[in-house]
Amino acid sequence: MSGEVLLQATVQGLQMGAIYALIALSMTLIFSVGGLLNFAHGDFMALAMYGAMALYQAFRMDAYAAAPLMFFLFLLLGFVLFRHLVQPVLAAGVLAGAQLTLGLVFIQENLLLLLFGGDYINVPTVLSNRNLGVPPLVMPWPLLVGSVLAAVLTAVLYVVLMRTDFGRQVRAITQNRDAAALMGIRVGRIQALAFGIGIGLLGLTGPMIVAQFTLTPAMGLDFTLIALIVMVTGGLGNFTGSMVAGVIIGVSESLASLLYGGTVGAMIPYAILLLVLLFRPHGLMGEH
Amino acid sequence: MLEVSGLVSGYGRISILRDVELRVEPGELVALVGVNGAGKTTLMKTIAGLVPASAGRITFEGSDLTGRGAERAVDAGIVLVPEGRMVFPRMTVWENLMLGGVHPRPRPHREAMLKRVFDLFPRLAERRDQKAATMSGGEQQMLAIGRGLMAQPRLLILDEPSLGLSPLMVQETYGALRRLNAEGLTILLAEQNVKLSLAVSGRGYVMENGRIVLTGASGELAHDPATRKAYLGRL
Question: Taking CA atoms, what residue in A is nearest to B45?
Answer without folding.
Answer: A182
